């Protein structure tokens, strides 16, 4: 029975995320349901030949999703919604960042126009919701030259304005737009907005670094273009409470890459914006049709928990803070192979409420699920674990990180996660069952303009270990080895 409840909860959580998923296909599907039209509507909008087949194959997934979508509709029926779409390259590929062809872009936008969406710039999305129920906003990140050469003609033809998020330091560089082109976009009704000065990884910056990237970009844009700057798009879609607060001091809105739609009550500094990914061109119809996306891994805890051999007594991985507060984006999904244990963890935030869960059945099996509320001064959580009830809390440290505590009937833990300097991170934990653990991490200044994708870390958790990690957008893979020669592997996706 306990398993059944767990599986149901995990499935529902996954359906909720997938229902608000990153892909236009699924948005249209959810929208279609809300209008009592058929799911097959999205076969038209995605041009997928396989939708019918996938629907049958994935019936169970669909059924659970349908229940979740209906539950969402029951609470949000008739509610206005703003859909913000994230694009990068149009008609040009750099092999890494998503490319959408002009034809595909036009088809996607026409399908939304047909559904009654009114297109506005991102800075006006929420205010437009006051009078228009279905609002959409098209955005292009990074300021590539093809936003001007390829996207502008399509959007002009459709009479749609868009928003470009500019990496200020890259304007006038080869492959990027010039200040003159940005002025043309502005006179075409587009919004020219900020994507920071250097495309820095904001969640790794100290308060000084945040000001340099956020305020610095706004000042340059205003000076060069002579017009107000409303929004910022967080590079790599990565943000935390510190970043959102710093953005709120400088901008009217902040845009993430979180899946989902925005209601009138949406957090203006954490606007949800599904990104088209490199896999979308080839894989979108399959993933949309089968109801899966990259976050399908959310389903894995439910299934893997069943399939994996049962472990002995429970044990948490080091630095597991169930009540993340200051260092919390909208979501994170992780798989960790560590010390003979396979952990899967999930963090999800909606406004002031967050859920975290960790599952491990291999090695020393462990399950913990916590719900947290974020108040003005701290986060408070309550949950259930293999050790029984759990209480958790976290407190911010003035923009430099947070301290956290966790207590169950059997164990307690106190920890801190700090960002003392740009791209440096320090984690410590003291707990009742395994003593002291710590980790120091640093991203050397390699590829500065791309947010320093390479990271190194070293720490102590039973024995000394060291490793490095590599980031690609919201994804991170890390490899470590400890003094006994044991290898650790982790994969995380953050948004
Ligand atoms: Zn970017």
Main features:
binds zinc ion, 23 strands, single chain, Porin, TIM Barrel
DSSP strand count: 23
Q: Tell me the number of structural domains.
A: 2
Major sheet strand order = 10-11-12-13-14-15-16-17-18-19-20-21-22-23
Q: What would the principal axes of the Cα set say about the shape?
A: globular
Gyration radius, rounded? 22 Å
How much of the sequence lies in strands comes to 25-35%
Strand-helix topology:
Blueprint: H1 2-19, H2 24-34, H3 41-46, H4 51-57, H5 59-76, E1 81-87, E2 89-90, E3 99-100, H6 102-114, E4 118-119, H7 125-128, E5 134-142, H8 145-158, E6 162-166, H9 179-187, E7 191-194, H10 207-225, E8 231-233, H11 241-250, E9 253-255, H12 280-290, H13 300-307, E10 331-338, E11 341-350, E12 353-360, E13 366-374, E14 379-385, E15 388-396, E16 401-408, E17 412-418, E18 424-431, E19 435-442, E20 454-461, E21 463-472, E22 475-482, E23 487-494
Parallel strand pairs: 1-5, 2-3, 4-5, 5-6, 6-7, 8-9
Antiparallel strand pairs: 10-11, 10-23, 11-12, 12-13, 13-14, 14-15, 15-16, 16-17, 17-18, 18-19, 19-20, 20-21, 21-22, 22-23
Helix pairs in contact: 1-5, 1-13, 4-12, 6-8, 10-11
């Amino acid at each position: 029975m306990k398993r059944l409840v767990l599986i149901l909860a995990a499935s529902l959580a996954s359906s909720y995320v997938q229902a608000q998923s990153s892909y236009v296909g699924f948005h249209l599907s959810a929208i279609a349901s809300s209008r009592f039209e058929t799911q097959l509507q999205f076969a038209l909008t995605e041009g997928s030949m396989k939708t019918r087949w996938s629907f049958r194959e994935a019936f169970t997934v669909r059924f659970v999703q349908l229940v979740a979508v209906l539950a969402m509709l029951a609470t949000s029926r008739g509610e206005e919604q703003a859909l913000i779409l994230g694009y990068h390259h149009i008609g040009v590929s750099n092999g890494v960042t998503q490319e959408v062809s002009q034809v595909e872009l036009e088809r996607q936008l026409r399908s939304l126009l047909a559904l009654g969406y009114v297109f506005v710039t991102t800075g006006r999305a929420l205010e437009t919701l006051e009078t228009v129920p279905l609002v959409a906003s098209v955005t292009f990140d990074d300021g590539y030259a093809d936003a001007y050469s390829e996207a502008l003609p399509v959007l002009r033809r459709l009479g749609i304005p868009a928003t470009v998020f500019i990496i200020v330091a890259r304007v006038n560089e080869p492959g990027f737009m010039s200040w003159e082109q940005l002025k043309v976009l502005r006179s075409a009704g587009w919004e020219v907005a900020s994507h920071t000065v250097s495309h820095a990884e904001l969640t790794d910056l100290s308060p000084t670094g945040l000001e340099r990237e956020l305020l610095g970009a706004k000042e340059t844009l205003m000076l060069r273009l002579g017009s107000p700057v409303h929004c910022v798009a967080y590079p790599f879609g990565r943000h935390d409470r510190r970043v959102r607060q710093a953005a709120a001091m400088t901008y009217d809105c902040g845009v993430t890459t979180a899946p989902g739609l925005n209601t009138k009550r949406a957090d203006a500094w954490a606007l949800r914006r599904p990104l088209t990914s490199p896999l979308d061109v080839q894989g979108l119809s399959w993933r949309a049709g089968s109801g899966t996306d990259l976050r399908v891994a959310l389903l894995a805890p439910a299934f893997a928990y069943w399939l994996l051999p049962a472990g002995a007594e429970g044990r948490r991985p080091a630095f597991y803070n169930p009540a993340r507060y200051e260092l919390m984006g909208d979501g994170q999904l992780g798989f960790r192979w560590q010390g003979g244990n396979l952990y899967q963890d999930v963090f999800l935030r909606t406004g002031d409420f967050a859920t975290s869960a960790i599952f491990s059945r291999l090695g020393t099996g462990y399950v913990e699920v916590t719900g947290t509320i974020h108040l003005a001064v701290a986060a408070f959580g309550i949950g259930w674990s293999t050790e029984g009830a759990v209480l958790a809390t976290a407190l911010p440290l003035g923009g430099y990180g947070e301290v956290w505590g966790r207590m169950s009937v059997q164990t307690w833990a106190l920890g801190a996660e700090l960002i003392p300097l740009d791209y440096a991170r320090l984690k410590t934990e003291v707990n009742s069952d395994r003593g002291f653990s710590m980790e120091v991490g640093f991203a050397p200044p390699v590829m500065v303009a791309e947010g320093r994708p390479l990271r190194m870390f070293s720490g102590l958790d039973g024995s000394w270990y060291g490793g490095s990690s590599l980031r690609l957008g919201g994804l991170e893979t890390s490899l470590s080895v400890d003094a006994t020669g044991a290898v650790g592997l982790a994969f995380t996706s953050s948004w």
